[in-house]
Amino acid sequence: MNFSISGISRLTARAGSALVGVAAATSALATDIVGQPVDKGVDMQPAASQIRADQIFFHNFIVSPIIIAIAGFVLLLLIIVIVRFNKRANPVPARFSHNTTVEIAWTVIPVLILMFIAIFSFRLLFEEHAMPPPYMTVKVTGRQWNWDYEYPDQKISAYTSTPMTETDAKAQNLPYLLETNAPMIVPVDQVVRVQVTAEDVIHSWSVPAFGVKIDAIPGRLNQTWFKADRTGTFYGQCSQLCGANHSYMPIEVKVVSPADFAAWVASKQPKPAATVAAAAPAPGAVPTAAR
To answer: Cα 286–289–291 angle (5° rounding)?
Structure first.
């Protein structure tokens, strides 16, 4: 069994091409839907913010090619060792145990690879943490097993978001365990600061399309931010094992136009006292139907 190096290289290249083809065929089985997972999906959700687009670029074009190249190189070395240096092909093994050139190479090259990754990784981390001046703040409180949303800038008190029932979700053709009865509402193209905490155990507020994921910890206020670049409905889920009903903590964010957001805020404001008083019957008045 005497294979040449070029023959082994061709074999490895063909195997790599086959794996890429299988991955492409598998991803073709699923049609991307912005804002939610899809059946048979193997890739990341499409981005709905610049942060998420940068995360996908880092994964697909920086980290993944390096991983594939390293895995292919190690596979090639294993095939060479198995074929060229087995007992039958190489009955008398070499007696040396050190090679200065090789030892320097396998130390320096990994360091250079990590430095290359760090350039893009640190840039992405700084981008995620350097929050621009926020347009608004939403306080998110997690508990077993729902989320509260409060808008201090708009004077909107906290309201509770729970999952829509399976019957209602199916009747409206909405994703069960993702759709909620009271989503978070935010305007498009605006920086939204999200302050996250919890009342009982650790939860995690995560929306993949925005590239945000942050733990909700009792007694601590964490914060993150996002800037949605399109309108639509975007889903997430609690990403910490928080108890028996962990899977019943969906996150729904509706991104709307500024005009629609202003209208929603107005609908949440308390009615003026004069309006309420005018609507109430006068003391001692007899209802018309009773006359």
So the answer is: 55
Report how far apart, in Å, the C-alpha atoms of 53 and of each of 60, 87, 269 are.
10, 51, 36
- The average pLDDT across 283-287 equals 52
214-256 residue pLDDT tens: 999 999 999 999 999 999 999 999 999 999 999 999 999 999 9
CATH assignment of 5-129, given 3.40.109.30, 3.60.10.10, 3.30.420.240, 1.10.287.90? 1.10.287.90
Two tokens, residue 98:
């050190």
Query: Residue 78 and residue 180: Cα distance in Å, rounded?
Result: 51
| Encoded tokens for 99 | 């090679």
What are the phi and psi torsion angles at 229 (to 5°)?
Answer: -100, 10
Q: What are phi and psi of 47, to 5 degrees?
A: -75, 145
Rounded-to-integer distance, Cα 279 and Cα 79, Å: 84
Q: How far, rounded to the nearest angstrom, does the alpha carbon of residue 163 sit from its chain's CA centroid? A: 19
- The phi, psi pair for 263, rounded to 5°, reads -65, -40
- Pair 57, 121: CB distance under 8 Å: no
Q: Which amino acid is at 99?
A: N
CATH class held by domain 136-269: mainly beta
